[in-house]
Amino acid sequence: MMEKNLPKGWTVGKIGDNEFCTLIMGQSPPGESYNDQKIGLPFYQGKSDFGLTNPKATVWCNKPTRIAEPNDILLCVRAPVGPTNIANEKCCIGRGLAIVRSTDKTDFDYLNYVLRKFEIDLAATGSGSVFDSVGKDELKAFKFPIPKDKKEQKRISKDIKEKLTTIDHIRLSAQKQKDAVESLQGALLREVFPYKEGDKLPEGWRREKLEKIFEEVKNQVQPYDEEFKTLPFIGLENVVSHSREYTDEEYNPPSSTCFRFDESNVLYGKLRPYLNKVYLPTTKGKSSMELLPLKPKNNYSREFLAAILQSNAVIGDTVKFSTGGRMPRADLKKLKNLKVAIPKDVSECNKLGLEIENKIRKFIKLRNQSSTQLKAIEALPAAILREVFDFAK
Predict the structure, then answer these.
(1) What contacts 120, CB < 8 A, 6 or more positions away?
(2) Are 354 and 306 in contact (CB under 8 A)?
(3) In contact, 262 and 281? CB cutoff 8 Å
(4) Is residue 392 a contact partner of residue 11, using CB atoms and an 8 Å limit?
(5) How many other CB atoms are there within 10 angstroms of residue 278's CB atom?
């Protein structure tokens, strides 16, 4: 089918025919030859070593068995199959990679772009139920369209490169915009609650223990309770760090005891408190035992409580007083004893909390718009490559 659709002057190449490229499969060097002292050649094993364009060395090898030269295309042949990088120096490759080297009949950039376009097609040739992989024979048989005239190859690759360069500039600009929005959200609470212990407070502010602002909600629901089956579940995985957002992260609700919460509560992630997971539920539900329902008291609002819990001073002290090694947990007794700088008047506190909540909602909206824009931009390179090569289906 590919042959019938080719323009005049084009032909079909195969990775394994040696006319347009040379295929060299990777091989694992002796285990004792690996090192992190930069002795020997950089050693790459798969996608985890890839950068945006060129691989990044973390391991070296002093007894290389398969060597790539600068401007060789490194092709992943295992989990996942298809991604490429370009060797920017002499290096050693393991079994997770293959070398695709252009011949004198092939423009290097053209070959690189055609392999990037057919990454999905290459992955489809993989096999294996757990780790996708592709063998030498499958790779050798892989077909791609190519103009016979090398000048035409260069013209096409030059045109693609110019378009991709423009897209990359647009992508970097969009990424900076997204980063700026995220930094604004983080700066908001630092700006509102900048005071550390020992700092002189402005007029109208005071220090207050957190135990005066919230209390724990210890209501629990058991698997044998009828409502256990009907209450929606929120786990720690469903709360996005720093942003108070809910995500539909796949998570299997436990068949064990849960906390019961309602719309008046603030859900606080006590596991690894540096993750800064705070959520304001809008319905009744049940939560994991690592996501504590807290309730404001003394007329403080839950928006203000959420802001205090997410302030740098509280996060820093909570992390400092956490218990446990690999999986630290907030110590609620010590958390309640922390003193925070807040306005003296409760109504001012609540006004401040509502202002922060409204700004966070706006930041989330802006960030989501930036993310959508960035995804659309990141899809453009594939669209350009399809435009060039899709006639050859």
Answers:
(1) 82
(2) no
(3) yes
(4) no
(5) 24
Beta-sheet strand order (sheet of 278-279):
214-216, 291-296, 266-269, 278-279
The Cα–Cα gap between 285 and 259 comes to 8
> What value does the mean pLDDT take over residues 146-150?
95
Ranking 86-95, 207-216, 316-325, 345-354 by mean pLDDT, the lowest is 316-325
Q: Return the sign of the alpha-carbon dihedral for residues 61, 67, 73, 78.
A: negative
- Exposed e or buried b per residue across 234-258, where buried means at least 16 C-beta atoms within 10 angstroms of its C-beta: bbbebbbebbbbeeeeeeeeeeeeb
What is the C-alpha separation between 372 and 335, in angstroms, rounded?
38
Q: Is 165 left (phi over 0), alpha (psi -120 to 50) or beta?
A: alpha
β 97-102/143-147 pair status: unpaired
Q: What is the pLDDT of residue 234?
A: 94
Instruction: Quote the CA–CA distance of 230 and 258 in Å, as a whole number.
Output: 13
3-state secondary structure of 17: coil
Task: Name the band, by pLDDT with cuts 50, 70 and 90, for residue 224.
Answer: very high
pLDDT digit string, tens, across residues 112-136: 999 998 777 766 666 544 447 889 9
- The answer to whether 303 and 353 have CB atoms below 8 angstroms apart is yes
Which phi-psi region, left, alpha or beta, contains residue 231 (left: φ > 0; alpha: ψ -120 to 50)?
beta
- Residue type, position 33, single letter: S
Residue 310 has pLDDT above 90, yes or no: yes
pTM as predicted: 0.71
